[in-house]
Write a structure and sequence with these properties.
Layout lengths: L1 E2 L6 E2 L2 E2 L3 E2 L2 H11 L4 H31 L8 H34 L11
Antiparallel strand pairs: 1-2, 3-4
Helix pairs in contact: 2-3
Amino acid sequence: MAQCVYCKTETEMYEGGDVPICPECWDARKAEREPPAAEQVQRLLIQESVEATARANAALRAFNEVLNQYPSGLPHPDGTHCIQDASRKLIVARKAMGRSNTRLNDYLSRGIVPQDLKRSG
């Protein structure tokens, strides 16, 4: 019997006729070569969208907190920097949320799997 080229256990199984590989390593490598199932892609995209929405909501709360520090509406010079910084973070979070929602919508409506979720074999 030969040894598996990955885990070195004894095996009689061969990949491609000449590379000894045990069933466990074969299954692990097979999973790496196969693209994710449709349900898994949808689950990943939904999770990405939920997380992006949560980050956007957190950025909005932070932005509102900064604005609420200046009830008169006229912040001091350092305050404008804080408002601009919070605004930039909110913009970035909303753009990420938009991208994740677009990816999910493209998948659900047209079946387009994003490149980063496709596995090459």
